[in-house]
Amino acid sequence: MNEVKNSYLGLIFDVQRYSIHDGPGIRTTVFFKGCPLRCWWCHNPEGIDSGKELMYFEYKCLHCGTCAHVCPMGAIEFDGIPIIRRSMCIACGSCSAVCPSDALKLIGKEYTVGELMKEIERDVLYFDNSGGGVTFSGGEPLYQHEFLLEVLKECKKIDIHRTLDTSGFAPQEVLASVMDYVDLFLYDLKLIDEKEHIKYTGVSNAQIKENLRFLVDHGRAKDVIIRFPVISEITDTADNVEALAEFISSMKGLKEIDLLPFHDVSEKYNRLDKDYKMTVHKSPSRERLLAIKGRLEGIGLYVKV
Ligand code: SF4
Ligand code: SF4
Question: Where do the Radical SAM core domain residues begin and end (predicted)?
């Protein structure tokens, strides 16, 4: 009998069906909450914190004040609009439950392995017909590696294609524990210089580089697509693109890279009362993307923009 381990709980902030940008075919993308990095340009700020949190959509708000009345912690002050005292909020969800217009949303929901599998299995027919599957993204899925591993095992049992979208920032034994259950890695490389990496992501890139080499050394280069976020004046500098090309060239067998152009998500940060560090809200030009593409094609990579 197929017994699913339901003792593990995962905190998930979104399950997106019919996704076509996170690996081959039609996919269900599962977004894990929690990430050890603090990338300035992060386009999923609701995935950074490892706990639940409230998002406030001002354009939906009816200004009724109901949320402030029900909060058991007195964490919402109502002054024409609800002002959330984040330090007092225990993410109980009482306010979002009574909000008549869904202007408050509690981000993060616990799933057992079985519950998440039910969601994933809904679209098995689409996966089969399109060569798709499931993608684990975030946040950083390896941050909840025990839960991730159990879900990966269940997917493997029923032959669902499994993609892991990762920053690569995790202890090597964690990566090793999931490696055999992953079909495709979407592996971020952001900044090759360590000091720059620390400045813009909050962590060193040493482990990220070592983990990529670990995958390559274990014959998995063919199953890796590098993802490079193109952020003007941060990752998109002549030095960094050159260093990226050299670093990838030093790893035998890597074949493909996706360029991910920056887009402004300041609105999401506002909804979470988080600071958005990106002062240059500029997407890279088509010409610039083509120039980077040309450079990376020059080292034999297939480059997708
Ligand atoms: S989630 Fe709970 S504690 Fe936080 S503001 Fe809403 S009602 Fe208050
Ligand atoms: S309950 Fe909802 S609609 Fe009413 S003030 Fe609060 S956030 Fe706005």
Answer: 21-300
Structure confidence by residue, pLDDT tens digits, 245-270: 999 999 999 999 999 999 999 999 99
Tell which residue, 24, 27, 4, has the closest CA to residue 15: 27
CATH at residue 215: 3.20.20.70
Residue 99 beta carbon below 6 angstroms from any ligand 2 atom:
yes
Q: What is the pLDDT of residue 1?
A: 44
Regarding the beta carbon of 104 and ligand 2, being less than 6 Å apart is answered: yes
Q: What is the pLDDT of residue 5?
A: 64
How far does the centroid of ligand 1 lie from the alpha carbon of residue 72, in Å? 7
Query: What is the number of the ligand 1 atom nearest to the C-alpha of 85?
Result: 5
* Residues 97 and 123 grouped into a single domain: no
Strands 82-84 and 76-78: antiparallel
Ligand 1 within 6 A of CB of 184:
no
- Shared domain for 199 and 257, answered yes or no, is yes
Give the number of domains in the chain. Answer: 2
**What ligand 2 atom has the least distance to the C-alpha of 98?**
1
Residues 181 and 77 in one domain: no
The CATH number that applies at residue 90 is 3.30.70.20
Kindly provide the ipTM of the predicted complex, given to two decimals. Answer: 0.98
Which residue range(s) make up the domain with 291? Answer: 9-50+109-304
Sign of the Cα torsion 272, 277, 279, 280 reads: negative
Closest ligand 1 atom, CA of 104?
6
Is the Cβ atom of 55 under 6 angstroms away from ligand 2?
no
Which pLDDT belongs to residue 282?
Answer: 82
The DSSP code for 61 is -
Q: Is the CB of 78 under 6 A from ligand 1?
A: no
Ligand closest to 90 (CA) is 1
Residue 7's pLDDT band (cuts 50, 70, 90): confident
165 in any annotated domain: yes
- Whether the CB-CB separation of 30 and 135 falls below 8 Å is answered with yes
In a domain, 179, yes or no: yes
Decide whether any atom of ligand 1 lies within 6 Å of the 251 Cβ: no
